[in-house]
């Protein structure tokens, strides 16, 4: 019996070992085959335009009237938030009704309300997320990212030392002394909800209090692909489009509250909450941060300015009259690029004005290297003494024209700056006169 049991046991251990090795190999292959995170550009809408162009054109007059009416209703709702106490149930009911009139429908799916939880974190999909969550549960947003500071009067925002990184001690004091909770959007930036940015604000995970994640999903009725926000949109444009749309539905789900482990750092705790929030939303987390978004916005603006400048230069170079005027300026200031001259002439339409703007430094440019050709000396065939006029011509022919008209130093007083301007102006005129004599080989 024992001899029979031995092989079976060894065979079972071999099977268990092979199963473990197969699981390890499968897990390793799954880790290797894990899909990469979505690109950063996919988290933001490039434009707000809808594919339903015909329907949008028909709705446009109605939307304008609706936006105007809602604008005045929005002012009344803002006054209500100022006058009524923040924790008043009457305030919550009145503001919620006004939100519905404004086209902001809030549907609370998974409530999971816990009276002991006073720290909330949520994903950021629109500029009214803070307002809608405040209607459901009175809370304070320590940081203001996309709205002007004048709106801090609505009892939704509060300064805690800094608008970008609140002081943790002040936040802890608020939790101990106030009945309202704290709300945070750790992503900092608004996204389209297709993925989560890496949490950049970590103060909710440093308070030592339980944290409840809140998942927000937003959809527009009638215009489903009309973006709530775009990559470069402002809070004002987002608000106007929000008032213009028929209505927008926000579905809010609360996850169970979690606590920070004893050995967890703030970063690890934030990553764990982010994974829970992403699972509730059905999306993935990404290593991208809001600073990466700022880099994209900056790069897009630089590229747009460069494209506009190239288009202006091409348009200017295609204008014969403008090129004739640019040639006149180029004769006087050969170290100035022709494209810069043509672009400024499009604004001034005057050779003298462009020269003055270039000399005074109003138009900035990178000087071109001008090759100065020294003329060959002429053999004198006359033994007579040169007249003063001929001497002037000879000096002009042999002169090396220098087009550096910049001042050696910047005057500290208005009189010194005016004297420097007159000096540079005289130097420019003298350079232009000498070059003109050299070019046309005048015989006076």
From TrEMBL:
Keywords: Acyltransferase, Lipid metabolism, Membrane, Transferase, Transmembrane, Transmembrane helix
GO CC aspect terms: endoplasmic reticulum
Membrane-spanning parts: 53-84
GO biological process, one term: ERAD pathway
PROSITE patterns per the UniProt record, alphabetical: CUE (PS51140)
GO molecular function: lysophosphatidic acid acyltransferase activity; ubiquitin binding
Disordered as annotated region, ranges: 1-36
Name under which the protein is recorded: CUE domain-containing protein
